[in-house]
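Supplementary Text 2. Reproducibility record for the structural model of the 229-residue chain.

All settings were left at their defaults, and a single model was retained for analysis rather than an ensemble. We include the record here because the model underlies the residue-level annotations in Supplementary Table 4.
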Amino acid sequence: MTRDRSIDELRHTLQSNLEEFERVRAIINDMLFLARADQGERATGLVEVSLAAEVSRTLEFLEIPLEDAQVRAVSHGDARAFVNTSLFGHALSNLVMNAIQHCAPGATIDVSIMREHGRIRIAVANPGDAIAPNVMAHLFDRFYRAESSRTNSRENHGLGLAIVKAVAEMHRGTVSATSEHGINTFAFSVARFGNEHRAMSEDALLPNAPGVPIGAGVRQAVTGSNASS
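Retained model, structure tokens:
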């Protein structure tokens, strides 16, 4: 405001301000969400859904980022669980976006749904550089970024994986990460039943053996721009 500027200069400045305000708003919202999770808030509005359908919906929503990165995503397995679909989609989106950012063009991101230790585990795996053990121990910590020098570090304010952990805990689940044989896998789990259904027998309703993909014959794929390769 101290000197005359052209309309184009003012428009560019205002647009830059709006983008920064949006980034700050997202950080504040994420911090408020994590604060509620810290107070023991549980997921509400739970509905019984096919997790394969929810995964397919999330991958469809991320079709443009997948195409831009020239990677594709496939999903397999299925199970029904009581979840807050908005929170579930948020957690899965964070994991898939994390995989996209660490994939080379032409790579495939694998999303799997499995029963594990009385819960349903959703894992997102992608080929990538090995992750050091000292880094692995902090991946789900807030504001932790293993590669602060990445070109997109301003957009990644280090809360994405912390939110995944919070969503899992709000659904009485856990998180995990592994880096083996050139494949990095990030996963979260959700309880099969909502709190009001805990008295029901999970074993009776989930006959599959632990660690065996549920409905492994059901396979869905959302491809990026190199799907034909």
